[in-house]
Design a protein that fits this description.
The chain has 249 residues and is of the alpha+beta class. It folds into 2 domains: 64 residues, Arc Repressor Mutant, subunit A (Orthogonal Bundle); 159 residues, 3-Layer(aba) Sandwich (Chorismate lyase). The protein is 26% helix and 31% strand. Strands 4-5-6-9-8-7 form a 6-stranded antiparallel sheet. α1 crosses α3 and α2 crosses α3. The chain is globular.
């Protein structure tokens, strides 16, 4: 059984979160299964209750588990047709694993001067060059999400020659394989009127209601490596955010 590395700079709660997530991804803990209690996790991994609670909070924010007061933590059931605002996975990864058809069209990719919003989010100098990836994602043949990702040049270099640039490979999975693992992320959702370009690609009237998602992803060292904005048609894809109180709060 994997243990907590006491000499690692990675926080204990992140290590425990990664251990449990791996068990969920491998189906060792199947959907609906009950996780060990807080006390059991404390004893098994020799951690404080506050650390275990922080782990459970992080897993719940990722949509991997759900907390039921006075009953404990359970592996979340896979939703049908919803995309959770998760930390470690992209909107479409669960759909690719299922029965729905996801098609991706890449409009542009390469190094360009970043817009100020992106350079600020990535901690780069104004006007700095970065890797830009602009795509349209369709679900079952219907335009669903128009996205633009902005990354530092060294992160974009990891995508060179990959099928991500041809729209047939997962961006998140490719970045993880290259060592860019999401440790934390901040995602914001707002209802806006569709600007001209997103409206055209999504088949909407200009200023028609659309969801705007902004996100910045950080690695275990706290450095941002991916910033994106996405315009999503809520009539094609439903963005689900699940929030529940932690027991004892």
């Amino acid at each position: 059984m994997e243990a907590i590395n006491r000499t690692s700079a990675e926080p204990y709660y992140q290590q425990l979160s990664r251990i449990i997530e791996q068990r969920i991804r491998s189906n060792e803990l199947s959907p609906g299964a009950r996780l060990p209690s807080e006390s059991d996790l404390c004893r098994t991994f020799d951690l404080s209750r506050s650390t275990v609670r922080e782990t459970l909070r992080a897993l719940q924010e990722q949509g991997l588990i759900r907390m039921i007061p006075r009953r404990g933590a359970f592996v979340a059931e896979k939703s049908q047709g919803d995309w959770m605002l998760q930390v470690t996975r992209g909107f479409f990864e669960s759909e690719v694993d299922g029965t729905r058809t996801v098609d991706t069209t890449v409009f542009r990719s390469g190094l360009e001067p970043l817009p100020r919003e992106a350079s600020d989010a990535l901690g780069l100098e104004p006007g700095a060059a970065g890797f830009i990836l602009e795509r349209l994602r369709c679900l079952d043949g219907r335009p669903a999400v128009y996205s633009t990702n902005f990354m530092p040049p060294e992160v974009g270099a990891a995508l060179a020659g990959t099928d991500v640039l041809r729209g047939t490979q997962s961006l998140n999975q490719t970045l993880r394989a290259a060592g860019y693992q999401i440790s934390s992320a901040r995602r914001e959702v707002a209802a806006v009127g569709a600007p001209e370009l997103p409206a055209r690609f999504l088949g909407l009237d200009v200023r028609a209601p659309v969801l705007l998602i902004r996100s910045v992803s950080r690695g275990p060292d706290g450095r941002p490596f991916d910033y994106y904005w996405s315009y999503a048609r809520s009539d094609v894809v439903k963005i689900a955010v699940e929030a529940q109180a932690m027991e004892g709060e």
